[in-house]
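Here is one chain, start to finish.
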Amino acid sequence: MVNYVDPRATIGKQTVLGRFVVIYENVSIGDGCVIGNGVVIHPGSIIGGNVRIDDNTVIGKQPMKAANSATTKDEQLPPAIIGDDCIIGTSVVIYAGSVLGKRVLAADLSSIRENVTIGDYTIIGRGAAVENFCKIGSYCKLETNVYITAYSELEDRVFVAPCVATSNDNFVGRTKERFKYFKGVTIKKGGRVGVNATILPGKVIGEDTLVAAGALVTSDTPPRKIIAGVPGKVFRDVPAEQLLENQ
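Its structure:
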Protein backbone atom coordinates (compact mmCIF):
# COMPACT_ATOMS: atom_id res chain seq x y z
CA MET A 1 0.00 0.00 0.00
CA VAL A 2 1.60 3.27 -1.14
CA ASN A 3 -0.25 6.41 -0.06
CA TYR A 4 0.83 9.99 0.29
CA VAL A 5 -0.77 11.87 3.18
CA ASP A 6 0.67 15.29 3.92
CA PRO A 7 1.46 15.64 7.64
CA ARG A 8 -0.61 18.85 7.71
CA ALA A 9 -3.76 16.95 6.69
CA THR A 10 -6.31 15.90 9.31
CA ILE A 11 -8.04 12.54 9.02
CA GLY A 12 -10.91 11.62 11.33
CA LYS A 13 -11.43 8.54 13.43
CA GLN A 14 -12.33 5.27 11.71
CA THR A 15 -11.72 6.75 8.27
CA VAL A 16 -10.36 4.13 5.87
CA LEU A 17 -8.02 4.85 2.97
CA GLY A 18 -7.59 2.63 -0.10
CA ARG A 19 -4.35 2.19 -2.01
CA PHE A 20 -2.44 4.91 -3.89
CA VAL A 21 -4.41 7.72 -2.23
CA VAL A 22 -2.95 11.25 -2.37
CA ILE A 23 -4.04 13.74 0.28
CA TYR A 24 -2.41 17.16 0.15
CA GLU A 25 -1.74 19.77 2.80
CA ASN A 26 -4.46 21.20 5.02
CA VAL A 27 -7.07 18.71 3.86
CA SER A 28 -9.65 17.91 6.53
CA ILE A 29 -11.51 14.59 6.43
CA GLY A 30 -14.19 13.77 9.01
CA ASP A 31 -14.86 10.62 10.97
CA GLY A 32 -16.04 7.38 9.42
CA CYS A 33 -15.19 8.13 5.78
CA VAL A 34 -14.25 5.55 3.15
CA ILE A 35 -11.73 6.77 0.57
CA GLY A 36 -11.24 4.49 -2.45
CA ASN A 37 -8.14 3.56 -4.42
CA GLY A 38 -6.33 6.25 -6.40
CA VAL A 39 -8.32 9.15 -4.94
CA VAL A 40 -6.64 12.58 -5.05
CA ILE A 41 -7.75 15.28 -2.61
CA HIS A 42 -6.24 18.68 -3.33
CA PRO A 43 -4.96 21.21 -0.76
CA GLY A 44 -7.38 22.57 1.80
CA SER A 45 -10.37 20.48 0.73
CA ILE A 46 -12.89 19.84 3.49
CA ILE A 47 -14.65 16.47 3.63
CA GLY A 48 -17.43 15.94 6.19
CA GLY A 49 -18.18 12.85 8.22
CA ASN A 50 -19.35 9.48 6.85
CA VAL A 51 -18.47 10.42 3.28
CA ARG A 52 -17.77 7.73 0.69
CA ILE A 53 -15.42 8.60 -2.18
CA ASP A 54 -14.91 5.85 -4.76
CA ASP A 55 -11.87 4.93 -6.84
CA ASN A 56 -9.95 7.44 -8.97
CA THR A 57 -11.99 10.47 -7.97
CA VAL A 58 -10.42 13.93 -7.75
CA ILE A 59 -11.59 16.48 -5.17
CA GLY A 60 -10.64 20.17 -5.17
CA LYS A 61 -8.96 20.38 -8.58
CA GLN A 62 -8.08 23.91 -9.65
CA PRO A 63 -9.59 24.75 -13.06
CA MET A 64 -7.61 24.96 -16.28
CA LYS A 65 -8.01 28.12 -18.33
CA ALA A 66 -7.91 27.81 -22.09
CA ALA A 67 -6.52 30.77 -24.01
CA ASN A 68 -9.95 31.54 -25.43
CA SER A 69 -12.15 30.50 -22.48
CA ALA A 70 -15.25 32.65 -22.05
CA THR A 71 -16.13 31.66 -18.48
CA THR A 72 -12.99 30.39 -16.70
CA LYS A 73 -10.89 32.93 -14.87
CA ASP A 74 -7.19 32.63 -14.17
CA GLU A 75 -7.30 32.64 -10.37
CA GLN A 76 -6.66 30.46 -7.34
CA LEU A 77 -10.00 29.30 -5.97
CA PRO A 78 -10.88 28.35 -2.40
CA PRO A 79 -10.98 24.67 -1.43
CA ALA A 80 -13.85 22.34 -2.25
CA ILE A 81 -16.26 21.48 0.57
CA ILE A 82 -18.10 18.15 0.73
CA GLY A 83 -20.87 17.88 3.33
CA ASP A 84 -21.64 15.02 5.69
CA ASP A 85 -22.93 11.67 4.40
CA CYS A 86 -22.21 12.38 0.73
CA ILE A 87 -21.52 9.58 -1.75
CA ILE A 88 -19.06 10.40 -4.52
CA GLY A 89 -18.74 7.77 -7.25
CA THR A 90 -15.87 6.48 -9.35
CA SER A 91 -13.85 8.89 -11.53
CA VAL A 92 -15.80 11.96 -10.42
CA VAL A 93 -14.10 15.36 -10.65
CA ILE A 94 -15.17 18.05 -8.18
CA TYR A 95 -13.37 21.33 -8.67
CA ALA A 96 -12.08 23.84 -6.14
CA GLY A 97 -14.59 26.47 -5.11
CA SER A 98 -17.51 24.02 -5.15
CA VAL A 99 -19.69 23.34 -2.11
CA LEU A 100 -21.82 20.21 -1.74
CA GLY A 101 -24.45 20.00 1.00
CA LYS A 102 -25.21 16.92 3.07
CA ARG A 103 -26.26 13.58 1.56
CA VAL A 104 -25.46 14.61 -2.02
CA LEU A 105 -24.86 11.76 -4.45
CA ALA A 106 -22.47 12.45 -7.33
CA ALA A 107 -22.58 9.32 -9.50
CA ASP A 108 -19.74 7.75 -11.49
CA LEU A 109 -18.03 9.95 -14.12
CA SER A 110 -19.90 13.11 -13.17
CA SER A 111 -18.20 16.51 -13.17
CA ILE A 112 -18.91 19.45 -10.86
CA ARG A 113 -17.06 22.57 -11.88
CA GLU A 114 -15.72 25.49 -9.84
CA ASN A 115 -17.96 28.01 -8.06
CA VAL A 116 -20.88 25.57 -7.94
CA THR A 117 -23.17 25.03 -4.96
CA ILE A 118 -25.32 21.94 -4.61
CA GLY A 119 -28.02 21.66 -1.97
CA ASP A 120 -28.77 18.83 0.44
CA TYR A 121 -30.06 15.46 -0.82
CA THR A 122 -29.50 16.28 -4.48
CA ILE A 123 -28.47 13.59 -6.99
CA ILE A 124 -26.03 14.30 -9.81
CA GLY A 125 -26.37 11.37 -12.20
CA ARG A 126 -23.81 9.27 -14.03
CA GLY A 127 -21.81 11.32 -16.51
CA ALA A 128 -23.72 14.52 -15.71
CA ALA A 129 -21.83 17.80 -16.00
CA VAL A 130 -22.56 20.90 -13.94
CA GLU A 131 -20.52 23.78 -15.32
CA ASN A 132 -19.06 26.72 -13.39
CA PHE A 133 -21.03 29.42 -11.58
CA CYS A 134 -24.14 27.23 -11.18
CA LYS A 135 -26.45 26.94 -8.21
CA ILE A 136 -28.34 23.68 -7.75
CA GLY A 137 -30.99 23.48 -5.03
CA SER A 138 -31.89 20.75 -2.55
CA TYR A 139 -33.73 17.51 -3.39
CA CYS A 140 -32.97 17.89 -7.10
CA LYS A 141 -32.32 14.99 -9.45
CA LEU A 142 -30.13 15.38 -12.52
CA GLU A 143 -30.09 12.08 -14.35
CA THR A 144 -27.51 10.41 -16.63
CA ASN A 145 -25.63 12.64 -19.08
CA VAL A 146 -27.45 15.86 -18.18
CA TYR A 147 -25.56 19.01 -19.17
CA ILE A 148 -26.12 22.14 -17.07
CA THR A 149 -24.41 25.11 -18.69
CA ALA A 150 -22.47 27.79 -16.78
CA TYR A 151 -24.38 30.55 -14.98
CA SER A 152 -27.51 28.43 -14.48
CA GLU A 153 -29.75 28.10 -11.44
CA LEU A 154 -31.98 25.19 -10.52
CA GLU A 155 -34.22 25.75 -7.52
CA ASP A 156 -35.32 23.04 -5.06
CA ARG A 157 -36.94 19.76 -6.16
CA VAL A 158 -36.11 20.13 -9.84
CA PHE A 159 -36.04 16.95 -11.96
CA VAL A 160 -33.95 16.78 -15.14
CA ALA A 161 -34.21 13.61 -17.24
CA PRO A 162 -31.31 11.98 -19.14
CA CYS A 163 -29.51 13.78 -21.94
CA VAL A 164 -31.12 17.18 -21.37
CA ALA A 165 -28.94 19.96 -22.82
CA THR A 166 -28.82 23.62 -21.80
CA SER A 167 -26.92 26.54 -23.33
CA ASN A 168 -25.75 30.03 -22.41
CA ASP A 169 -24.44 31.62 -25.61
CA ASN A 170 -26.91 33.01 -28.18
CA PHE A 171 -24.00 33.92 -30.46
CA VAL A 172 -22.76 30.30 -30.67
CA GLY A 173 -19.15 31.20 -30.06
CA ARG A 174 -18.91 34.08 -32.56
CA THR A 175 -18.25 37.84 -32.03
CA LYS A 176 -16.86 39.55 -28.97
CA GLU A 177 -20.31 40.89 -28.23
CA ARG A 178 -21.31 37.51 -26.88
CA PHE A 179 -19.22 38.04 -23.73
CA LYS A 180 -21.73 40.68 -22.55
CA TYR A 181 -24.72 38.37 -22.81
CA PHE A 182 -23.74 35.01 -21.36
CA LYS A 183 -26.64 33.71 -19.33
CA GLY A 184 -27.53 30.20 -18.26
CA VAL A 185 -30.97 28.75 -17.71
CA THR A 186 -33.23 28.99 -14.67
CA ILE A 187 -35.55 26.19 -13.58
CA LYS A 188 -37.92 27.27 -10.85
CA LYS A 189 -38.97 25.13 -7.87
CA GLY A 190 -40.47 21.80 -8.86
CA GLY A 191 -39.74 22.24 -12.56
CA ARG A 192 -39.32 19.04 -14.58
CA VAL A 193 -37.57 18.56 -17.90
CA GLY A 194 -38.09 15.44 -20.02
CA VAL A 195 -35.50 13.32 -21.79
CA ASN A 196 -33.52 14.94 -24.63
CA ALA A 197 -35.13 18.36 -24.19
CA THR A 198 -33.05 21.45 -25.06
CA ILE A 199 -33.25 24.79 -23.26
CA LEU A 200 -31.81 27.85 -24.99
CA PRO A 201 -29.75 30.57 -23.25
CA GLY A 202 -31.32 32.65 -20.51
CA LYS A 203 -34.69 30.91 -20.58
CA VAL A 204 -36.73 30.46 -17.40
CA ILE A 205 -38.75 27.31 -16.77
CA GLY A 206 -41.69 28.25 -14.53
CA GLU A 207 -42.47 26.74 -11.15
CA ASP A 208 -43.92 23.22 -11.39
CA THR A 209 -43.74 23.34 -15.19
CA LEU A 210 -43.12 20.15 -17.16
CA VAL A 211 -41.06 20.34 -20.35
CA ALA A 212 -41.92 17.29 -22.46
CA ALA A 213 -39.35 14.91 -23.93
CA GLY A 214 -37.58 16.31 -26.98
CA ALA A 215 -38.98 19.82 -26.59
CA LEU A 216 -37.02 22.91 -27.60
CA VAL A 217 -37.53 25.76 -25.12
CA THR A 218 -37.06 29.07 -26.96
CA SER A 219 -38.91 31.39 -24.54
CA ASP A 220 -39.72 31.65 -20.84
CA THR A 221 -42.48 29.29 -19.75
CA PRO A 222 -45.45 29.99 -17.47
CA PRO A 223 -45.81 28.00 -14.24
CA ARG A 224 -47.75 24.74 -13.96
CA LYS A 225 -47.94 24.13 -17.70
CA ILE A 226 -46.81 21.29 -19.95
CA ILE A 227 -44.52 22.58 -22.71
CA ALA A 228 -44.15 20.37 -25.79
CA GLY A 229 -42.88 20.55 -29.34
CA VAL A 230 -40.26 22.32 -31.47
CA PRO A 231 -40.37 25.13 -30.67
CA GLY A 232 -41.97 24.47 -27.29
CA LYS A 233 -45.56 25.64 -26.84
CA VAL A 234 -48.05 25.37 -23.99
CA PHE A 235 -49.80 22.03 -24.41
CA ARG A 236 -52.02 21.97 -21.32
CA ASP A 237 -51.99 22.34 -17.54
CA VAL A 238 -49.92 20.02 -15.39
CA PRO A 239 -52.43 17.58 -13.80
CA ALA A 240 -53.27 18.58 -10.23
CA GLU A 241 -52.12 15.24 -8.84
CA GLN A 242 -48.63 15.87 -10.24
CA LEU A 243 -48.15 19.30 -8.66
CA LEU A 244 -45.49 19.53 -6.00
CA GLU A 245 -47.99 20.71 -3.39
CA ASN A 246 -49.92 17.45 -3.78
CA GLN A 247 -47.01 15.06 -3.34
